[in-house]
Amino acid sequence: MTACTTTRVVVADDQTVVREGIVMLLGLLPGIEVVGSAADGDEAVRLVAELAPDVVLMDLRMPRCDGVEATRRIRTDHPGTQVVVLTTYADDDSLFPALQAGARGYLTKDADGDEIVRAIDDVLSGDAGLSPKIQRRLLERIAEPAPSRPEPPAEPPDGLTAREVEVLRLVAGGQTNPEIARTLHVSTATVKTHINNLFAKAGLRDRAQAIHYAYRHGLAEPPGTSAR
Question: Which residues are modified to 4-aspartylphosphate (predicted)?
Answer without folding.
Answer: 59
